[in-house]
## 1
Amino acid sequence: MNQGVRVRLAERMARIRPFYVMDLLARARALEAKGVDVVHMEIGEPDFPTAAPIVEAGRRALGEGRTRYTPSLGLSELRRAISDDYRQRFGLEVGPERVAVTPGASGALHLVLAILVDPGDEVLMADPTYPCNRHLVELLGGVPRLLPVGPDTGYQLSAEQIAAAWTPRTRVVMLASPSNPTGTILSPPAIGALHRVVQERAGALVVDEIYQGLVYEVPASTSLACSQDLFVINSFSKYFGMTGWRLGWAVAPLGYMEALDRLAQNLYLAAPTLSQWAALAAFTPEAGEILEGRRLRFQERRDFLLPALERLGFAFPVRPQGAFYLYGRCDALAPDSDRLAEALLERRAVAVTPGRDFGHHEPERYLRFAYTTDLGRLQEGVERIRRFLGSW
Ligand SMILES: Cc1ncc(COP(=O)(O)O)c(C=O)c1O
């Protein structure tokens, strides 16, 4: 295919790794093409279709010919709706002028990191973490510093750890609550303590709240309740079930909005217009009722899957309270999670993600299970894993 074409990539591309889970998904799909019935527990997106009121709003927008660019920071109606939502759900005043609507949380992460990180600047993040974060920092010439976290801190960074890791080149700390891959959350006091450490050192705190609505024992919270002097990343992908619409947002202190606007204009002009009109319906009571019902379905799945996997020998030292992931220790069952995931797919057609996608800290001891498939399929998956472990 590349005959006669010399591929000469920028040197930085050597540091951008693919998602292993994508590779796994491709292999699972190849098995399915051969007629194999695969149980998917690797996919990080809701299995529900986008809620009907949102789809209908998108259709209406298309019918009305809303197909032109919006302002770079988003439709004023949507920025206002997001601002209203912070007031209604959390009692917080987050003015629409501080909301930047972006192409997914991915767009928000890219924008925010790009206005903060200079070449050589260090960005602290937990290990394990969402894999894109370190690659985005690399892309900007920054230095991702992955700090190992474990059950003792709920797989989250602690204020002490950040203080100890800080150097004159440290510029940004990234958190995620609830976290991918661990599903654990940071309490508001913990975020407050982390924020204080970062502020005392004149750094910037970026909190990814993309799984905000998907929490099960505790009320949803936002780090903006601790301080307005931080950056929040959010999205319509997960709780709102709109992955393919590519829509998210960032909240930033007012003084940064001009820079975000300028960069958005240059990077992608604006987030998708139809998606923005559709997302307005995500805040209606009709959509809210559907989304809340789905949250309860996720909780039901977690409440089945967690003890079922524990009975098979997987360990969850910290109870995950959010997102739709369980990050289970499998070292009592197998020496290497890569080989275990490999064998589960090849021999029992169960797809799960090994720890190596998420960092360097003990990845071989962990598997990530996503409960983004219905209860019946999860039961089937657990049964297949049980039979597999019996013969392993
Ligand atoms: C923690 C986290 N942040 C950001 C994203 C990006 O999501 P999107 O660009 O679809 O909003 C994901 C997707 O899985 C995620 O898990």
## 2
Amino acid sequence: MGGAEPESAEVDRLPGWVTLLLAPNPGPMTLDGTNTWIVRAPGSDRATVIDPGPLDESHLRRIAGHDGIERILITHGHHDHVEGAARLSELLDGVPVRAASPAHCVGGEPLRPGESLDGILVLRTPGHTSDSVSFVVEREDGSAVFTGDTMLGRGTTVVAPPDGDLGAYLRSLELLSAYPQMLMLPGHGPARSDTAERARFYLGHRRQRLAQVAAAMAAGAETPAAVVDLVYPDLDPALRFAAEWSAAAQIDYLQQENNQEKKP
Ligand SMILES: [Zn+2]
């Protein structure tokens, strides 16, 4: 980990316009479970769901019990965020599901970067997946960025090829580092007060890991498994597959950088 994580930045008091419903799917990749967010439009009863989470009937019914839901938005196409979307739409009389990827839309158009939906701005932040977006909400009584899995409330996130792309991910983190004084409302883990600092913390962590992977490759490690053995000698076996995915992304990134340097 690139330096200590400031736990003091965790917040449990949210602005009145946002509600968190935690899905019952905890695990090594999902932390406490998927965070489903309900965002109320300013001065109205209209509401938007961000990430319905898994296909869990009681969770989806709990979401659908909230008034005024007019749309369902998806941060990215991983099943722990999107799996329940079609069923939730059904429970809500067919409200549209909108995601960056047409494959995850139900009765709605793909999200366009820069588009605003009831004051929820779509920001393209690829890297964790190629279809990852964040949502920015700026209000007088507190502003927030919904980061999906691009940044988590605790720990770091997986960037796994072929869909994940470390170069794109580093650029997305740089973009998010330009949002100071904003709440970060992630796809997993606690809400935090430090969006921009967290983006810089993630950037520092990635650069430190890249340096370690470059050193492992220089020492002869050629495969993700060999890199993981050198870089994470005491790894929890449950996290090994995630570490190998990350190592594959780092090897890809370093090889691409290398090839670019060699070009005239
Ligand atoms: Zn994900």
## 3
Amino acid sequence: MNQSPENFDQPDPCAELTELAGSLAHEIKNPLSVIRLNVELLEEDLQEIASPASRRALKKISTVKRQCTRLEHLLDDFMQFSRLRRLTLKPGDLNDQIEQVLDFYGPQATQQNVEIVRYLDADLPGIMLDSRTLQAALLNLVKNALEAMPDGGRLEIRTRVTLKGVALDLIDSGCGMDDTTLLHMFENFFSSKSNGTGLGLPTAKKIIEAHGGLIDVQSALDRGTKFSLHFPTPRRI
Ligand SMILES: Nc1ncnc2c1ncn2[C@@H]1O[C@H](COP(=O)(O)OP(=O)(O)OP(=O)(O)O)[C@@H](O)[C@H]1O
Ligand SMILES: [Mg+2]
């Protein structure tokens, strides 16, 4: 493995296993995409036949497709997990990173009536970051916030200078968390959602920590949730 200081080398006793799980996830993705493709072709064929039997078959196909999507998400999350060992940190701007993620989720937010309010500090100092990986963490957090506000709400995004570096706050007016969720949210596979894999937050936490940062949460049931991400500025890394 490349030992250059830019490469993040995590002191993880399960590193080999994590990497193996990542490769396995990657291998499973190929046959899974063949399954999806064939199921979609089958769906197209059946759509041309108007009979009760084909309608029943189409229903079953839709279940298979839903489960394929679920597996695809699970595998993507696993691959993100294992990629953490190959982080390459470069100087970058936290404002840019969150802007890109918010632009991505903009249409969905508008559709579900969520107002996104940005208070980004224009003079924010740069940090050391791996753009693709950090954005994956931010995507998970914004996705969770939107999922917590299915009937609309407000998502405030703030960046600010702190004593030790910079911080990013994501404050949603969503459903908030109960005590059990607050206690377990960072555990792998913990999810309160019927279709959640429960890898979003643990992955985000690992990514933030791999950037020398910290993630902090405050939440009140039925009121909302605030995630604060703290990053050191370069001279402190
Ligand atoms: N912004 C939030 N508001 C309310 N609850 C949240 C928020 N973010 C996370 N949670 C809670 O934490 C749990 C774990 O989140 P995590 O992102 O790890 O998994 P998930 O969202 O359930 O599934 P996945 O992200 O893998 O699709 C969620 O199921 C939810 O209960
Ligand atoms: Mg999630």
